[in-house]
Amino acid sequence: MKDYSWQQIALGWGILIAIAVAYVLIREKINLKKAATGEDKERIANIFKKILPDSWNNYKLAFARWEEKEYHGRRTITRYWSYAIAFSWDEMHVVPLLCEDREIRYKESFLVTKDSLGMVNGKKGENWMTLYDENRKEILTLEVEAKNTKSDKFHPVNIIQEEEAAAFTRLIERWLDDVNGKSGIEVSGKYGKPLKKK
Known about the structure:
Blueprint: H1 6-37, H2 39-51, E1 60-72, E2 75-87, E3 91-100, E4 103-106, E5 110-113, E6 119-122, E7 128-132, E8 138-143, E9 147-148, E10 159-160, H3 162-183
Antiparallel strand pairs: 1-2, 2-3, 3-4, 3-5, 6-7, 7-8, 9-10
């Protein structure tokens, strides 16, 4: 059996890492080109054209997602959620998405209104928020990113939505002020620990 010097082993690893980095960069470039075509963004719009045929164009439409890690000793479980959302200043239609076999299917939508909420957690200037009902039970957490690229079955779309992401950030600020101001609640801006310690 041939012995390899540490320099040869290091060179081999260096080549493998360079190939992996090149693959990731090329894939990202291809996905951004696909995102620029707007094909996946149009698929989100088509969902709302069916669900809200008479009013879909009165809302900002976006792809939203969330992922959460759970640690069990040495094992980590990551849970993923994907949504199509249509939002205005006062309400949001939420459509849970099922992304399987390169297809985006959707479940029944539900409506969240600002007035029906008991608390909103998030941080001004950021792109995520957690919504709670009047009993402070969590409804869902959403994040709207300006760029989404497909990397695996848990990251299923190529969408550029810079305008929509900026509008969602403004919506978070408004709902933080309006909902929490009405309830006299001060939130932490930390996921999973919404209330500020006194």
